[in-house]
Design goal:
Radius of gyration: 25 Å
Largest sheet: none
Structural class: mainly alpha
Number of strands: 0
Strand content: under 5%
Order of helices and strands: HHHHHHHHHHHHHHHHH
């Protein structure tokens, strides 16, 4: 009995030792990955995996390194093994999805994303990437997946980014504007933020160009409420859409919205706008949101003249994380 216990203890000690060795190799491999030395990273990761075959993080890094090296066949082979694991997570499906898209393997990618979404029905990442794959083919079904991603994972920003861009090119300017503004608050300083800021400025111009068109009519009560308040305040931009006129428009919008619809449709974006109004930061916020897209020189002039207000807003903004609570998705609101 003692001998058996000794052997079990020895076996566990050796396993622990091998795991520690694998972890050390993993760290070395990641350093090679950071310096784009993919061949050495693959050598070290392969050796690490031999010492700890069940380590999913090592296997994910190996698959991803194959992808970075553009060895897509190896990435696909390794990625397929990843998603077959019982402990496969969302990232496993993402890595394999990238490899499939790199070789334009749409059929297998489609099957894989559906499998991943079935396993992770609340994954905003997988809905977003599936939508992006469809949109490459100009398949308008992409918006259905971005919308679903917003519904199940309201704080994953990329679905808002893609949905805002999609709606910008349709007659539905309401959701282009709403999703776009949510996005710039979630990703305030990313590489994608300037693009959406420009889209917002142009989107407001398009909204007031088409506001009285029958094509802007909606059966969605939230959208109708939004358009009704915008129509009430449309005279504020009668001389053009500028950061200053938008600020007046949006200030009046917030006040009327909460007078008429705030209790019926609680919405974090509008609540945040009202908070900024109360804090005396709404002017600076709107300048941040629309100023650079409207004209860099004018923006720089405004911030120079209102440096204290602008700096106070930036300090306030960086001290919080913008999040959308569950249950505030009004895009598919019932008409009943």
């Amino acid at each position: 009995m003692k001998k058996l216990l000794f052997l079990i203890g020895l076996f566990l000690s050796l396993n622990d030792c091998f795991a520690q060795q694998a972890d050390s190799l993993h760290l070395i491999a990641r350093q090679f990955m950071r310096t784009a030395d993919y061949p050495n990273a693959i050598i070290v990761l392969t050796n690490a995996l031999k010492k700890d075959p069940g380590n999913i993080e090592i296997q994910k890094d190996l698959t991803f390194t194959y992808y970075l090296q553009r060895n897509y066949s190896a990435a696909v082979e390794s990625g397929r093994k990843l998603i077959e694991r019982n402990d496969a997570d969302e990232q496993c499906y993402q890595i394999l999805g990238m490899a499939y898209k790199a070789i334009d393997e749409k059929k297998q990618a489609d099957k894989m994303y559906k499998q991943g979404i079935k396993k992770f029905p609340s994954s905003g990442e997988l809905y977003n990437e599936y939508g992006e794959m469809l949109w490459v083919e100009k398949d308008a079904e992409a918006i259905r997946f971005w919308e679903k991603g917003i519904e199940v994972d309201p704080n994953y920003s990329s679905n808002y980014y893609n949905a805002s861009r999609f709606y910008y090119y349709t007659y539905d300017k309401v959701w282009s504007l709403i999703y776009g503004e949510i996005f710039i608050n979630m990703e305030s300083y990313s590489k994608r933020t300037p693009e959406i800021k420009s889209l917002l400025v142009e989107g407001y111009k398009k909204l007031f160009t088409d506001l009285k068109s029958p094509k802007t009519a909606s059966k969605n009560p939230f959208e109708n409420a939004y358009l009704a308040v915008m129509t009430d305040q449309s005279q504020t931009v009668a001389l053009g859409v500028t950061p200053e006129s938008l600020n007046i428009l949006r200030s009046k919008f917030v006040l009327e919205w909460f007078e008429k619809y705030g209790d019926k449709y609680p919405f974090r974006l509008f609540e945040y706008q009202r908070q900024l109004l109360k804090e005396g930061l709404f002017d600076a916020y709107d300048e941040w949101a629309f100023g650079t897209a409207s004209g860099l020189a004018a923006f720089q002039s405004w911030t120079a003249q209102h440096a204290d207000d602008y700096n106070r807003f930036i300090y306030f903004q960086k001290g919080r994380v913008f999040k959308i609570p569950p249950g505030q998705n009004y895009r598919n609101l019932s008409t009943k």
